[in-house]
């Protein structure tokens, strides 16, 4: 059976105009009505003619997404969130990976321009002159997740990394830690590297530690680097707590400690960042700063679609985070 918008409206108990707004992602529609329309659309398999929609609205109803590595649990959750929200607004996504290669990121932007996507979402770490040049010459909006890049055409979305790291470090002190070290990210990574280090440093100095004596080892966010840097820290001095700039490095640190017969949290307490799916089931389970990557993806999609629709959007969107207390701390 062939359905049209009037049929969908009748089945959902709404007006054809409401169905149109749901399909096109325009106007304000109550969640209850949107859910009814989406349910009927799914049950009937109705799909509006994408070419016709594009000609009418001068859009492709497509978002481009660039992530470093889709096999990373955090990025895959982020992409799933983007896709789910985009679908509710009638958008599809084009996904590509950059491997954290800055030139590759710029190449992806150029490809997306050729594909005439309506908006680009990317999880970058550095903002170069090449990035600026291509964004300067691209009329479509950009959204960067995980950093704060200053450009009139970029929406930035992130947590307050300095504050989160500060609170995580204070948590360790509140649980009796005296000699805390940090396994951090590269300091050229403004958010996950530098800002998290500054939060750690600020809290440690407040607690009376000499900043010149603090141990900071720079990792690459992998389990392997967490393991190796934990061993390097122990070769320098005895510590009773570790703050890691992400969960993977924290889990690597715990593995190293256990391999050496050092008990967690009895001898050394460990706190991570992100709260990926492994962190809650590892033994011991990891105390960490939780970032909801799926929700962030949904917010990113909604924000950039609103920007495409001409709505006023904040230049910087601050995400929530939460300290999750588990068995890697006392």
Architecture of the largest domain, CATH level 2? 3-Layer(aba) Sandwich
Instruction: Indicate the percent of residues in helices.
Output: 40-55%
Give the CATH class of the largest domain.
Alpha Beta
> Largest sheet, described in full?
6 strands, parallel
Strand order of the largest sheet: 2-1-3-4-5-11
Number of domains: 3
CATH H level, superfamily name of the largest domain: Response regulator
- The total count of helices amounts to 12
What is the strand content? 15-25%
Number of strands: 12
According to CATH, the fold-level topology of the largest domain is Rossmann fold
Low-confidence stretches: none
| Structural class category | alpha/beta
Question: How would you describe the shape?
Answer: elongated
Tell me, rounded to a whole number, the average pLDDT. 91
- CA-based gyration radius: 23 Å
Word description of this protein:
This protein has 330 residues and is an alpha/beta fold. It folds into 3 domains: 5-48, 434 Repressor (Amino-terminal Domain), CATH 1.10.260.40; 60-159 and 293-320, Rossmann fold (3-Layer(aba) Sandwich), CATH 3.40.50; 161-290, Rossmann fold (3-Layer(aba) Sandwich), CATH 3.40.50. It is built from 12 helices and 12 strands. The protein has helices at 5-12, 16-24, 31-44, 50-57, 73-88, 102-114, 129-136, 161-174, 190-206, 223-236, 247-259, 293-308, and strands spanning 62-67, 92-97, 119-122, 142-145, 154-158, 180-184, 216-218, 241-244, 269-274, 287-290, 316-318, 322-324. The strands form 2 sheets. It has a 6-stranded parallel beta sheet with strand order 2-1-3-4-5-11, with helices on both faces. The protein has a 6-stranded mixed beta sheet with strand order 7-6-8-9-10-12, sandwiched between helices. Strand 1, helix 5 and strand 2 (92-97) form a beta-alpha-beta unit. The longest helix is centred in the middle third of the chain and has 17 residues, at 190-206.
């Amino acid at each position: 059976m062939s359905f049209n918008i009037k049929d969908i409206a009748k089945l959902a108990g709404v007006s054809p105009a409401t169905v149109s707004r749901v399909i096109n992602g325009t106007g304000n529609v109550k969640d209850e009505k949107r859910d009814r329309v989406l349910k009927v659309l799914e049950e009937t398999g109705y799909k509006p003619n994408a070419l016709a929609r594009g000609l009418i609205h001068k859009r492709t109803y497509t978002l481009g997404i660039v992530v470093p590595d889709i096999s990373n649990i955090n990025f895959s959750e982020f992409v799933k969130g983007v896709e789910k929200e985009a679908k509710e607004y009638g958008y599809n996504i084009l996904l590509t990976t950059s491997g954290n290669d800055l030139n590759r990121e710029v190449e992806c932007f150029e490809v997306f321009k050729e594909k005439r996507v309506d908006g680009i979402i990317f999880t970058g770490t550095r903002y170069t002159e090449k990035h600026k040049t291509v964004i300067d010459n691209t009329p479509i909006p950009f959204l960067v997740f995980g950093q704060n890049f200053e450009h009139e055409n970029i929406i930035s979305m992130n947590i307050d990394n300095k504050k989160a790291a500060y609170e995580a470090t204070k948590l360790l002190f509140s649980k009796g830690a005296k000699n805390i070290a940090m396994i951090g990210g590269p300091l050229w990574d403004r958010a996950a590297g530098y800002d998290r280090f500054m939060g750690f440093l600020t809290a440690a100095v407040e607690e009376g530690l000499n900043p010149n004596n603090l141990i900071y080892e720079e990792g690459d966010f992998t389990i392997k680097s967490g393991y190796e840097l934990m061993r390097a820290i122990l070769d320098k001095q005895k510590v009773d707590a570790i703050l890691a700039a992400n969960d993977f490095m924290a889990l690597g640190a715990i593995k190293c400690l256990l391999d050496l017969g050092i008990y967690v949290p009895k001898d050394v307490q460990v706190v991570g960042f992100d709260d990926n799916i492994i962190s809650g089931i590892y033994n011991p389970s990891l105390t960490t700063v939780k970032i909801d990557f799926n929700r962030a993806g949904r917010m990113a999609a909604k924000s950039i679609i609103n920007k495409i629709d001409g709505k006023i959007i904040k230049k910087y969107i601050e995400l929530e985070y939460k300290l999750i207390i588990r068995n890697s701390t006392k």
